[in-house]
Design brief:
Elements: E1 20-23, E2 29-32, E3 39-43, E4 53-54, H1 56-60, E5 72-75, E6 81-85, E7 88-93, E8 98-102, E9 119-122, E10 135-139, E11 153-158, E12 167-170, E13 179-182, E14 188-191, E15 194-197, E16 204-207, E17 212-214, E18 224-226, E19 239-242, E20 248-251, E21 272-275, E22 289-291, E23 298-299, E24 304-311, E25 320-325, E26 329-331, E27 334-336, E28 340-342, E29 345-347, E30 356-362, E31 373-381, E32 384-385, E33 389-393
Length: about 400
């Protein structure tokens, strides 16, 4: 076929290593930071953007260990960018270079960026037709120093609040270089990583085999659930990504400066496996929705969508939701462009004689809420998701 990689020489204005990307509302990408690069740039470029734009925040968050690499970049619902590096964050107007807001530092002061790598996500966006509350969740990382115990703390902050403050929570397992993935029902999976050390060649030990589920809407103190442990260590250079059938694909682990398979405690692992959340258990089959194929493939901003689906068992109409999850690019525990939206319900399904149902929802209103591109769309019934379908938002 004609689908293949295309490599462009000299596409960037500066060489970058350990930088972060994000898709913008106008379909460009912004590329931020990297080793020794305290700036950002855009791709593709035009006459006005064919240059570097200084970002002093990256210089301010730099330290002798360079704990500001792979910054966490999230598009806020106002179109500005939330940028977290080391242990603090700003809201950046990338068009003007102005810092719109400076957020308080994490109370414990510990770094959460590479190489003291934690992980973070934008929690599910809801109430899309009202005043949207955007929350960022950051977990794990490492105190400064090699082979010290990883952090077991998390910070949660509402970045849209006029006076935002971090709320700290404690994970059941300490973890450095874990991966976070948003599940179709809005829960967060934390998987992979180690209990001691930092990210880098042979800088960590004691793999954390048990994933942890985080339920954002549960009461404080009852949000974490430890899951069944894996059999393979997934350390440095491992990844995890949600796939359309509701599983999380997990792969890789390469803790050495090359592929090493013998005479080492953590050999290179090029395998793939999939983590199946509890909602895939066969005991939930009667609740599981099945989207009727081609319900929708290309959708416009603000469009009213009629999603057809089937449920084998009894349907509770008020417990049906429709979510959209963006596919992300993942490396070094950073899930770039990752977000989940719960679409506003215009009309809940009725209870028909047969098992065919229909729900009316509204697509996101604008590109600040949801950048254009492909998303996986799911119907969720009583927290049990359907297999997703691909839709293109434009």
């Amino acid at each position: 076929g004609s689908c293949d990689w295309k490599e462009t020489n000299n596409a960037l204005s500066a060489p970058r290593w350990y930088a972060s990307n994000h898709v913008l509302p106008d379909n460009r990408q912004i590329i931020i930071g990297g080793r020794g690069q305290f700036n950002y740039e855009f791709y593709p470029k035009n006459d006005q953007t064919n240059k570097l734009f200084d970002l002093p925040f990256l210089l301010q968050t730099n330290d002798p260990e360079e704990n500001n690499l792979y910054p966490l970049v999230i598009q806020n619902v106002d179109g500005n960018l939330f940028i977290f590096a080391n242990n603090r964050a700003i809201l950046l107007n990338y068009n003007t270079g102005a810092v719109v807001k400076t957020y308080p530092a994490l109370p414990d002061g510990n770094p959460r960026s590479y190489p003291s790598t934690g992980s973070g996500v934008l929690l599910p966006l809801k109430n899309l037709q009202g005043k949207i509350q955007a929350e960022v969740f950051v977990c794990g990382g490492a105190p400064k120093g090699c082979f010290m115990g990883a952090l077991n703390t998390c910070g949660r902050i509402t970045i849209t609040d006029p006076n935002p403050q971090w709320v700290m929570e404690t994970m059941p397992l300490a973890r450095v270089m874990g991966d976070m993935q948003l599940l179709p029902n809005g829960n967060v999976l934390i998987i992979n990583g180690a209990a001691k050390g930092a990210q880098g060649w042979e800088l960590a030990k004691d793999p954390v085999l048990s994933p942890v589920l985080y339920k954002p809407d549960a009461p404080l103190g009852a949000r974490f659930e430890v899951q069944t442990p894996a059999s393979r260590p997934r350390m440095y250079h491992s990844t995890a990504i949600l796939i359309r059938d509701d599983r999380v694909l997990v792969g890789g682990s390469s803790s050495h400066g090359g592929y090493v398979y013998v005479n080492t405690p953590y050999s290179s692992d090029l395998s793939l496996e999939a983590f199946s959340p509890a909602y895939l258990d066969s005991s939930f089959d009667l609740l599981r929705p099945q989207i009727v194929p081609k319900s929708q493939s290309q959708i416009a901003y603000g469009q009213k969508l009629m999603i057809r689906f089937m449920v084998k068992g009894f349907l509770n109409p008020k417990l049906v939701r429709v979510t959209m999850v963006s596919p992300s690019f993942i490396t070094h525990s950073v899930s770039m462009n990752h977000r989940l939206l719960e679409l506003p319900v215009a009309k809940y399904p009725l209870l028909p004689i047969f098992r065919n149902h229909q729900i009316a929802v509204n697509a996101p209103a604008n590109k600040n809420i949801a950048p254009p591109g492909y998303y996986m769309l799911f119907v969720v019934h009583q927290d049990i998701p359907s297999v997703g379908i691909w839709v293109k938002l434009q």
